[in-house]
Design a protein that fits this description.
The chain is an alpha+beta fold. The protein has 24 helices and 31 strands. The strands form ten sheets. Strands 2, 3, 4, 5, 8, 16 and 17 form a seven-stranded mixed beta sheet that branches. A five-stranded antiparallel beta sheet has the order 10-9-21-20-19, sandwiched between helices. A three-stranded antiparallel beta sheet has the order 1-6-7. α3 packs across α4, α9 runs antiparallel to α21 and α13 packs across α15. It starts with a helix and ends in a 6-residue tail after the last strand.
Length: 736
C-alpha cells in the first residue's frame, strides 16, 4: 500500500517537473522570438541610438536666376559651431574652449562653459558663421591643442546679391533654410534638396568607442529656378514706382506689373515698399518710427503687423478698385455683343440717373454729344453706364467671369486672394450694374486686372500668368520647362484689335497721353477709383490712381499696370499720377527689349533717331555719319579711331542732339552733373541740356506749354557727356 503511494507521488513530482520545464522553455522561446523577431527592428534602433551619433548635413539650396541667368538668390558656404561636451577631455580644455569661443563668437563665456558641462555629444552654439570666424576657430584649436570637443559642421547661408530688388517676389528663408515667403516658399521643396547625415560611433554614456567609426550620407543639393523676371526691367519698374510714390506722397505705396501679354510671363513685379531679404526681420526706417511711437506693451504685436505688411505682395494678396481702367473690359463686352461700334452716339450732360440716384461724370458740365471712341478717350461715366445697362446683368457677369475676375489667376506665388463682386448669380441691381460699368465698388487683385488686359492686347485669349520659366539641376540641365498656358478665348481677335485701336487713340489725344512715347504705338487707359474702406481720415476721400497700357499696338510685347494707393500730393487722377511714370518706364523698357520706334514723317522730324554703332570706325567717317543723321558730333581725345561713344548704339535721341565720340581710353570718365529739368518746358530743357553736353528725349504730352514732371536719370546724378535724359511732360489738366 505504501509502495503504491510512493510510485504515484513520484509520477506526480515528475509530471510537475516536466510541466515546469516545459513552461520555462516555452517562456524562453517566446522571449527569444520577441527579442529576435518581433521587436528586433526596434531594439536595433535603440542600440543604434545608444551607439551611434547622427549629425544632420544641410543640403545646398538651389539658385534662383532671372531670365538672363543673373543670380537673384543663392547659397554660400557657412559653418555651424558644434560643442561636444562628452568629448571634452579635461577642465583645462573646457576653459580654453569657453574662453576662445566667447571671444570669437561674441557669446558670454559663462554660457559656453555651462553648455560644455552637459551630458551631451552635440550642442549647436552658433549657426552659419562665415569663413573668417571659421578660420579663427581652427587657429584656436591648433594653438590650444583642442583635438575634440568642438566641431565645425558645413552649412549654407542664403543671400540675395541684388539686395531689395524683387524682394517681395523672391521672399526669404528662415534659420533652418526653409522658404518663408515668395518664390522661396512656393518652390521650397524643389529648392531645398535633401539633407544628409554624418554618423559616428559612441558608447552608452556618449563618449568615444574603442574603435573608430564615421559614415557620411552626403546631402542632395536643391534644384535651381530660372524666372521669367528680367532684373533690368525690374529695376526700371521699382525706380519708376518709387519716384511716383514719393512724388505723390502715396500713403499706402503702390504696385507695378510688367507682363508679356502673349504668354503671361511676368517680366517685372514691384510693390512699394521693398524689404531686404538678407535681413528680413529688420523694419524699414518709416516703420521703425511707427514702432517707436507704439506703447511698450503693444510693440511686439505691432512689429509683427509691420513685418507682415512689409513682406506682403499686394499684387496677389490685396484687392483694389480698378476704376476707369476697367472700361477697356466693358468696351470689349459691348463690341463683342454688337451693342455698339466706334461711331455709336452718346450724350453726356454731366450725370445719369439710375433708379433714384444720379451718378456724376468727372466733367460736371458734361461732354455733350460724343461717339464711342471719344467716350473712352474722355472716360465718360454716363456713356459707359448706359452701355452697361444695355449689356445687362447676366451678360455683364458672364463676361466678368470669362475675363478671369471671378477666379484666381493661377500665378505661381503664394497667398493669392479672390475678388469681391456684387452677385454670384449675375442678377445685380441696376445701381450695382451702373457702378460696376465704371470699375467702382468691387474688388479685384492687380494680377487679375493685368491678366484680363493681356486678353485685350493679345487677340482675346486669357492666359495664366507665371513667374518660373525653368527648373534646372545643379549642372544647369533643364528638368522642367514652363510655357504659355491658355485658359480660354474670351473675345474675337477683331474685338481685341478694335479696343486696342481705341486705347491707342486715347494715348494720342485722350486721358492717357501723359504716358505717350512717340513711335512705339502705346495703347493705354487710366483710372481713378474712390476707396470706400479704411480711410486715412474719416470723412475724407481717398483714391487709387492707376494706369494700364501695352505696346507696340500692332505686335504687343509688354503690358504695364501701375497703381498708386492714396496719393496725397495734391493730385489724385490716374492720368496725372500713374500715367507719367508708366510713360517713363515704356521709354526705357521698349528700347532695352530691342523694340525699335516706327516714326511717321512728322514724328521723325520732331522726336528722335536711333544711334548707330560707331565704335571701331575712323573718326572722320564717324563724324560724317553723325552729321548726315542731323546730329552734332563732339570729339573727345586726339586719336584717329572711335573707341567708345555716348549715347550707346541703339539709343534714341532727338534730332539735333549730341553724340560724344571718344578716341582715347578712359576719356568717357569725364562726367557731368545732370540738371534738374522738373518744372521746365521742353524747349528750356533742350537748351540747358545742350550746354551741358546732354540729350533730351521727351515722352508724354506734346503740348509745348506743358512742363516736365519726371526725369531719368534724376537731377544731381553724374553721367557721361552725351547721355540721353528721358523726361515726361505732363498735362496736369487731364481728369481720368
Amino acid at each position: 500500500m505504501v509502495k503504491g503511494s510512493t510510485i504515484r507521488m513520484r509520477k506526480r513530482i515528475l509530471l510537475v517537473a516536466l510541466i515546469t520545464i516545459f513552461l520555462f522553455f516555452s517562456i524562453l522561446i517566446i522571449r527569444l522570438v520577441n527579442l529576435q523577431i518581433i521587436n528586433a527592428y526596434n531594439l536595433f534602433k535603440m542600440a543604434n541610438s545608444q551607439q551611434l551619433a547622427s549629425t544632420k548635413l544641410t543640403a545646398k539650396r538651389g539658385i534662383i536666376y532671372d531670365r538672363n541667368m543673373v543670380p537673384l538668390a543663392q547659397s554660400a558656404t557657412a559653418w555651424d559651431v558644434v560643442l561636444e561636451p562628452n568629448y571634452i577631455k579635461n577642465d583645462e580644455t573646457r576653459e580654453n574652449i569657453a574662453q576662445g569661443l566667447s571671444e570669437i563668437l561674441d557669446i558670454p563665456k559663462e554660457e559656453i562653459a555651462e553648455a560644455s558641462k552637459k551630458k551631451s555629444s552635440y550642442k549647436i552654439i552658433k549657426k552659419k558663421i562665415d569663413s573668417n570666424l571659421k578660420d579663427k576657430i581652427i587657429e584656436l584649436k591648433t594653438q590650444k591643442n583642442i583635438t575634440s570637443g568642438v566641431r565645425l559642421i558645413e552649412n549654407y547661408k542664403r543671400y540675395f546679391p541684388m539686395g531689395t530688388l524683387a524682394s517681395t517676389v523672391l521672399g526669404f528663408t528662415g534659420d533652418d533654410d526653409q522658404g518663408l515667403s515668395g518664390i522661396e516658399s512656393q518652390y521650397d521643396k524643389i529648392l531645398k534638396g535633401e539633407s544628409g547625415k554624418l554618423v559616428s560611433a559612441k558608447n552608452a554614456i556618449g563618449t568615444d568607442m574603442p574603435y573608430d567609426y564615421e559614415h557620411m550620407i552626403p546631402p542632395k543639393d536643391g534644384q535651381n529656378l530660372v524666372l521669367t523676371l528680367d532684373s533690368n526691367i525690374q529695376r526700371i519698374a521699382e525706380r519708376c514706382l518709387k519716384q511716383a510714390v514719393e512724388k505723390n506722397d502715396a500713403r499706402n505705396g503702390g504696385f507695378f506689373i510688367a507682363m508679356n501679354p502673349k504668354t503671361g510671363e511676368i517680366l517685372a513685379l514691384a510693390v512699394e515698399k521693398n524689404f531686404n531679404p538678407n535681413s528680413p526681420f529688420e523694419l524699414c526706417d518709416q516703420d521703425k518710427k511707427i514702432l517707436e511711437d507704439t506703447p511698450e506693451e503693444e510693440k511686439q504685436k505691432k512689429k509683427s503687423e509691420l513685418l507682415s505688411k512689409q513682406w506682403s505682395n499686394s499684387v496677389v494678396n490685396s484687392l483694389y478698385y480698378p476704376g476707369s481702367v476697367f472700361k477697356m473690359i466693358v468696351a470689349a463686352m459691348g463690341l463683342e455683343l454688337g451693342l455698339v461700334d466706334e461711331n455709336s452716339n452718346f450724350n453726356c450732360s454731366g450725370g445719369i440717373k439710375i433708379s433714384d440716384r444720379i451718378i456724376r461724370c468727372h466733367k460736371r458740365i458734361g461732354h455733350g454729344p460724343l461717339n464711342f471712341v471719344e467716350a473712352l478717350c474722355k472716360s465718360c461715366n454716363p456713356a459707359f453706364i448706359s452701355l452697361g445697362q444695355k449689356i445687362g446683368s447676366k451678360n455683364f457677369f458672364d463676361f466678368y467671369k470669362a475675363f478671369g475676375f471671378h477666379e484666381k489667376s493661377g500665378i505661381d506665388l503664394p497667398g493669392e486672394t479672390k475678388d469681391v463682386f456684387f452677385s454670384e448669380e449675375g442678377n445685380m441691381k441696376p445701381i450695382n450694374l451702373a457702378v460696376a460699368s465704371i470699375g467702382q465698388n468691387f474688388g479685384i487683385t492687380p494680377i487679375q486686372m493685368a491678366t484680363a488686359a493681356c486678353a485685350i492686347a493679345n487677340g482675346g485669349e486669357l492666359v495664366t500668368p507665371y513667374i518660373v520659366k525653368e527648373i534646372q539641376d545643379k549642372d544647369g540641365k533643364v528638368i522642367k520647362s514652363f510655357s504659355k498656358k491658355s485658359r480660354r478665348q474670351i473675345i474675337s481677335r477683331e474685338t481685341s484689335k478694335r479696343v486696342s485701336d481705341m486705347m491707342a487713340q486715347n494715348t494720342i489725344s485722350g486721358g492717357a497721353k501723359n504716358a505717350n512715347v512717340p513711335g512705339f504705338g502705346i495703347c493705354g487707359k487710366t483710372g481713378t477709383s474712390e476707396k470706400k474702406e479704411k480711410l486715412l481720415v474719416p470723412g475724407q476721400k481717398d483714391y487709387m490712381s492707376s494706369y494700364c497700357g501695352f505696346a507696340p499696338l500692332n505686335d504687343p510685347q509688354i503690358l504695364i499696370l501701375m497703381g498708386i494707393d492714396t496719393p496725397k500730393g495734391g493730385q489724385y487722377y490716374g492720368s496725372v499720377v500713374a500715367a507719367p511714370p508708366c510713360g517713363l518706364a515704356f521709354s526705357e523698357i521698349l528700347p532695352y527689349m530691342g523694340i525699335k520706334p516706327q516714326y511717321n514723317e512728322e514724328e521723325s522730324k520732331k522726336y528722335g533717331i536711333e544711334i548707330p554703332n560707331l565704335v571701331g570706325e575712323k573718326i572722320n567717317d564717324a563724324k560724317i555719319e553723325i552729321i548726315n543723321l542731323e546730329l552734332k558730333p563732339v570729339i573727345m581725345g586726339k586719336g584717329e579711331q572711335v573707341l567708345s561713344q555716348v549715347p550707346s548704339p541703339g539709343s534714341l535721341i532727338a534730332r539735333g542732339g549730341t553724340v560724344i565720340l571718344y578716341t582715347e581710353d578712359n576719356a568717357e570718365n569725364d562726367k557731368v552733373k545732370v540738371p534738374n529739368f522738373i518744372g521746365m518746358k521742353k524747349s528750356e530743357a533742350v537748351k540747358i541740356a545742350e550746354s551741358a553736353g546732354l540729350n533730351i528725349l521727351a515722352s508724354g504730352s506734346s503740348n509745348e506749354e506743358d512742363k516736365i514732371k519726371t526725369q531719368s536719370p534724376s537731377g544731381s546724378e553724374y553721367v557721361p557727356k552725351g547721355t540721353t535724359i528721358n523726361v515726361v511732360i505732363h498735362n496736369d489738366n487731364l481728369r481720368d
